[in-house]
Write a structure and sequence with these properties.
alpha/beta; ATP binding; ABC_transporter-like_ATP-bd; P-loop_NTPase
């Protein structure tokens, strides 16, 4: 295993020697990973390489059999996704988990709805729709999402790229430590994919570290600072777009080349 970078900073999120098995099937075989402040770390690998299992262990969807996780240098133990969310790790999965019938603002606050102040909120459980819409509009503006200024539009009326933008904006609004994006451009056209890539760059500019899982090599090489390559349940290498080409990355991923 090769790592082209020598870091002295404390990772925002780190995994050490993670092991996860499913009966006789090995999902992760001693995988380590480091995500540093303000960087985009891409994770690539063939199907079955362990990318999804790794992300699930990082975000509380799976509990590793062995290994350690740390956040800002302190050990953490996520037993469920809610634990990771409360620690500041937000994940946007391919399925997006948006509610089509609800509007943009309601989706951004899905599961975190704000209540009206005073007795209206505490006793009658009335939602503070005005504040949620105001905050949602401000978050979209800060991320430069100009096509979604009407936060009262139902999600079902939006394009695939706009829905992805809402999910990313929601993650950015609440992901105080880390934002994880699972194949965010997989079902999008060229124009909408470019908009999502710009969103990733803006998150980095805000100092929010991003983990990007993607099969799209041009996208990975456009936005990633470092690239973690999974192969057969292990970390095969950690490279950068400056040190290796796309051809090199694919060769390492398939085992044709050793980094």
């Amino acid at each position: 295993m090769s790592d082209t970078t020598t870091e002295t900073r404390t990772p925002v999120l780190a995994a050490k020697r993670l092991v996860k098995t499913y009966g006789h099937v090995v999902g992760l075989d001693g995988v380590s990973l480091e995500l540093y402040p303000g960087e985009v770390l891409a994770i690539i690998g063939d199907n079955g390489a362990g990318k999804t299992t790794l992300i699930k262990c990082l975000t509380g969807a799976e509990i590793p059999d062995e290994g350690e996780l740390s956040l800002d240098g302190k050990p953490v133990h996520f037993r469920r996704p809610q634990d990771a969310r409360e620690a500041g790790i937000e994940t946007v999965y391919q399925s997006l988990a948006v509610s089509p019938a609800l509007d943009v603002a309601a989706n951004m606050y899905l599961g975190r709805e704000l209540r009206r102040p005073g007795i209206l909120g505490s006793t009658f459980r009335m939602l503070d729709t005005k504040t949620m819409r105001k905050n949602a509009r401000a978050e979209l503006t800060e991320l430069g999402i100009s096509t979604l200024q009407d936060v009262t539009v139902p999600i079902e009326n939006l394009s695939g790229g706009q829905r992805q933008a809402v999910a990313v904006a929601r993650a950015a609004a609440f992901g105080s430590k880390v934002v994880v994006l699972d194949e965010p451009t997989a079902a999008l056209g060229v124009r909408e994919s470019n908009q999502v890539l710009e969103l990733i760059k803006r998150l980095r500019e805000r100092g929010v570290p991003v983990i990007l899982i993607s099969h799209n090599m041009p996208h990975v090489f456009e936005v990633a600072d470092r690239i973690h390559i999974q192969r057969l349940g292990k970390r095969a290498a950690t490279i950068t777009p400056q040190s290796h080409s796309m051809t090199d990355a694919v060769a390492i991923m398939t085992g044709a080349q050793v980094a």
